[in-house]
Amino acid sequence: MCRWKNYGDWGDWIEVKENAPDLARKFVPGKVTMSSVSDAYQPIENRLELTKRVLQNMDKHTNLSILTKSNLVTRDIDIFHKFDHIEIGLTLNGFTGDMKKLFEPLAPTHQARLHAIESLSNNNITTFAFISPVIPSLVNIESIISETREFVDYYIVELINMAAGGNKFRKALSLNYPESYRILRNREKLAKFTSETREILRKSNVRVLPLITHYH
Question: Quick check: pTM over 0.90?
Fold first, then answer.
């Protein structure tokens, strides 16, 4: 979005869609996803409750899928139960310590997200884990699946999108994790890593959608 909005760096600003709850007062055929660009449960939602009001106003026959990095999502479990068809996913990558400070400084911790998705499952809500971004040597897919397989219905796995990551991300990765950067920048090494990742998923004995990659 920063390519079209000249407000500052990613994470430094937010554009509030104040009329979203009013616009949500209708049935939408097909599947509705919240959200793929901006998180519906980022910190300001705790104060504005914009997402909560959108959910309250939506036609409960809408086929709804929610993806977030935030454990704040559990706040709305009572509203989720009113929908005929709903699934909720948490983005998981296992980042901790310096790695989290570098790549996801403002996001809830890995443990907080695990507790959130387990809570959703325990409340009879269909759940999925979005394992992303998968970076060579930094993200342990097997470990994440092992931690979550008891309360996740299916998985989506995405390899890091280097092109969309931006110069700031690529520089940080090359300086702090040079071996990971070299794999991602070498076509043969990246193809080998992708093949190994597919094999891990094949052997995982869980439901996994096709691996998302960003290269040809």
Answer: yes
Q: Cα–Cα distance between 197 and 193 in angstroms, integer?
A: 6
pLDDT tens for the chain, residues 1 to 216: 666 777 777 778 888 999 999 999 987 888 999 987 789 999 999 999 999 999 999 999 999 999 999 999 999 999 999 999 999 999 999 999 999 999 999 899 999 999 999 999 999 999 999 999 999 999 999 999 999 999 999 999 999 999 888 888 999 999 999 999 999 999 999 999 999 999 999 999 999 999 999 875
The radius of gyration of the chain from alpha carbons, rounded to an integer in Å, stands at 18
DSSP 63: E
Beta-carbon count within 10 A of 140 CB: 15
Domains of the chain: 20-203 (3.80.30.30)
Q: How far apart are CA 178 and CA 183, in angstroms?
A: 9
3-state secondary structure (DSSP) of residue 150: coil
Q: DSSP 3-state assignment of 141?
A: helix
Whether the CB-CB separation of 65 and 87 falls below 8 Å is answered with: yes
Q: Please give the helix or strand (H or E) that residue 77 lies within, else none.
A: helix 77-80
